[in-house]
Design goal:
This protein is an alpha+beta fold. Helix content is about 35%, strand content about 25%.
């Protein structure tokens, strides 16, 4: 289910997925979950999955912002279109926040789509201006 929802999410973001991508993704998810590099939550309604969210736990050198040295990168918060704007995303974020506090996580970080910014802000996320990235793919 996580593979299906992730592929749908990526395609909605305009990505064209190559042949075999779903199989590679499924294998990655299975391995990452078994090793604790990925944790996931599903939202269900009447026994059907209608949304999901996942985190990549990461160690962080302790600091004032990371006293426990633990962070979670939140990714792939996805709710199927008919169930959007009904509190499903907020429910997933609440569950993740609760689990993070129970496990002593210092911070949740994410990259938000424009359409999801308001949801994250309502749930307590603040914009950050210091993040940068560099693609290491083919130059």
């Amino acid at each position: 289910m996580l593979t299906e929802l992730r592929c749908t999410f990526l395609e909605e973001m305009g990505q064209q997925l190559s042949d075999g991508f779903a199989d590679r993704l499924r294998a990655w998810i299975e391995e990452a979950m078994a090793e604790g590099r990925l944790q996931a939550w599903l939202a269900e309604l009447d026994g059907r999955v209608i949304g999901s969210a996942a985190v990549n736990p990461y160690p962080h050198m302790p600091s004032a912002s990371y006293p426990n040295g633990k962070g979670w990168y939140l990714l792939n918060v996805y709710v199927k279109p008919p169930y959007r704007l009904a509190g499903v995303g907020a429910g997933l974020l609440a569950a993740i926040g609760s689990a993070a506090r129970e496990q002593g996580v210092d911070a949740l970080t994410l990259h938000a789509t424009v359409s999801a910014r308001r949801l994250y802000e309502r749930c307590g996320f603040k914009p950050a201006t210091d993040a940068m990235s560099m693609s290491l793919g083919t130059l």
